[in-house]
Amino acid sequence: MAITYEKIATATTSAGNTSITLSSIPSTYTDLVLIINGTNSQPSDLRMRFNSNTSSIYSTTIIYGFTSSGSSSRESNQTSFYGAFQTDRSTIITNINNYANTNTYKTALTRFNSVGNFLSVFGQLWRSTSAIDSITCYVTSGSYNAGVTFSLYGILKA
Amino acid sequence: MAISRIKTSSVLQGFPKSRSLLAGNAAFNPITNSYESIATVTVGSGGTSSVSFSSIPSTYKHLQIRWIARSSYNSAGNIISMFTRLNGSTSDYSWHYMNGDGASLSTGAATNAGSILISYLPANGYESGMFGTGVIDILDYANTNKYKTVKSIGGCDTNNTGSEKGILSYTSGNLRSLNAVSSITFACASDLSSGLTQYTTFSLYGIK
After folding, report:
1. Distances B5 to A111, B8, B28, B42, B68 between C-alpha atoms, Å
2. pLDDT one-digit tens code per residue, A109-132
3. What is the ipTM, given to two decimal places?
4. Phi, psi of B33 (to 5 degrees)
5. DSSP line for chain A
6. B146 CB-side CA count, 13 A
7. What is the pLDDT of residues A58-81, one digit of tens each?
8. Which residues sit opposite A31 in a β-bridge?
9. For the stretch B58-71, what's the b/e string if a residue is b when 16 or more beta carbons lie within 10 angstroms of its beta carbon?
10. B12, B190, B200: which is closest to B114 by C-alpha?
11. pLDDT at A69
12. Whole-model pTM?
């Protein structure tokens, strides 16, 4: 039986890295799951792009919660997706269903958790019908500490 | 060459011979695939009134459904609620949610309901290509000693267009039935009376 949930690629940062790209993603799976774990040298946004595309076609709806409060916010017409990365250990799980479907825009669902900071969920829209063949994650402040891991998995439907 | 079994007892017995490669040992059968695809439904041209999975085997431990979907309700400004029913049951559900609409958080719940709220979809008047997405888990779905619980994370973003601009949600629901889940149906509106468009896709996976 074909493997349904399979590792596609992994990357690990060295200290000072500010951007990681997972490229040459095959279009043969149905869904992608990206798992990021590690710490940043300072609190930062973690922005995400598909296919190195810098057009203003990214938008995000956000739910977030701090120790004693929570709220929701939104970004529209951006050149990348909004995310977060902290100095405390952060885990990000991004689900991209139907990433190779050329009839629909691409939607992603990202969960972010940071010990001692906050948690959030991002609903993300990339208004392109292109299949996703690369994912770039970059921080806007400081840099990734050594040992941040990026693990990309493919899920194959029947 | 005869096959010997290496054990203390074998040594003491003077290495009894065996015609089988197993030599009296139990066969080792590794589980190589704990996450298996059960079925996928992709809606064709013209849309559908609902998406269903039936004859779900009870041989897995948990179920997961991964989806993208768009409501067939013709509106350019509304975000539409999607619901589910298990085993065709039309009663004995309860659920609660936490939503973010880009401006504020809201929470709510329902008891003695006819279905479980799952998530939110763009209506068919939004920009072509906009779909909602999500992941649904039904843990212990075949356990006949427990009521059935559904947890879901999902929603949609519409790039700040429309009178309703996208909703992100956590939902959790319960069906007060001990029966194993053998069928799952998705549609829009709490009575599942509103449909889904072409390219809507639901994929059902079993976890061992």
Report:
1. 52, 9, 16, 53, 55
2. 999 988 777 889 999 999 999 999
3. 0.94
4. -140, 100
5. ---SEEEEEEEEPPTT--EEEE----TTSSEEEEEEEE-BSS-EEEEEEETT--SS-EEEEEEEE-SS-EEEEEEEEESSB--EE-SS-EEEEEEEETTT-TTS-EEEEEEEEETTS-EEEEEEEE---SPP--EEEEESSS-BPTT-EEEEEEE---
6. 11
7. 999 999 988 788 899 999 999 999
8. A97, A155
9. eebeebbbbbbbbb
10. B190
11. 86
12. 0.90
* Out of A3, A71, A109, closest to residue B133 by CB: A109
Q: Which two tokens stand for residue B53?
A: 């999975």
Tokens at residue B45, please?
């041209």
Tokens 């869904």: give the residue: A31
Q: Would you list which residues of chain A are within 8 Å, Cβ to Cβ, of chain B?
A: 1, 3-5, 30-31, 59-63, 70-74, 76-77, 95, 97-98, 101, 103-105, 107-109, 111, 121-125, 127, 129, 155-158
